User: What shape does this take?
Amino acid sequence: MDKRILVVDDDAAIVSALTSLFARAGYIVDVARTGPAALEQLSRRPDLVVLDLMLPGVDGYDICRHIRRQEAYIPIVMLSARDETDDRVLGLELGADAYLTKPFEPGELLAQVRAVFRTVSAREGGARGPLAVNGVRLWEAQHHVEVDGQRVELSPKEFELLRHFMRHPGQVFGRETLLREIWGYVVEVDSRTVDTHIQRLRAKIEPEPATPTRIETVRGFGYRLAADATQK
Assistant: This one.
């Protein structure tokens, strides 16, 4: 089945170029030139969204938030003329799978789109059942998490962080390693970002966040998911 890409951008020249680029690569292309139009187009269930940030009506950040609130996971590649670190970090923390600044090389964008599709395909193909550690169960393809039988809502980065720990229970990860594995080594973010996300994650999955028994701090090294934490 051909993949469907929704291109969301108000620049007619960019829309035309991207439509031709993706069509030549064998994708079905839908177009939206405003925020409200993009929200309407989501009903067609695109396989991926190429999303500009500066849009009339509703900006790209709000569209990204809307997409991530949906039950089905839709990959997002963000495009922006903004190249500040804070903008890239915000886009990625809201759930973008990739972030490119304008002007960009068409070949680079196409490579990013293909890489995202490969990642999604591998994730869905390998998900035969949930990961399960210490009363926490995580379904990778469905982006679904339950703690002690109760569903919890995680942000995209919280989900990725928990999934990383659950794939390696008992293994200690330093902040720099987590920044590289979760945020990407090209993203310049402060190591405190890791601590902040760990605190938020603990608030959602720990019986007592102030005295965590699932995600433990290993002083001088980093964090680990305890393989057999004592429940309270």
Remarks:
- The longest helix spans residues 106-125.
- The radius of gyration is 19 Å.
- The longest strand covers residues 4-8.
- The chain has a mean pLDDT of 85.
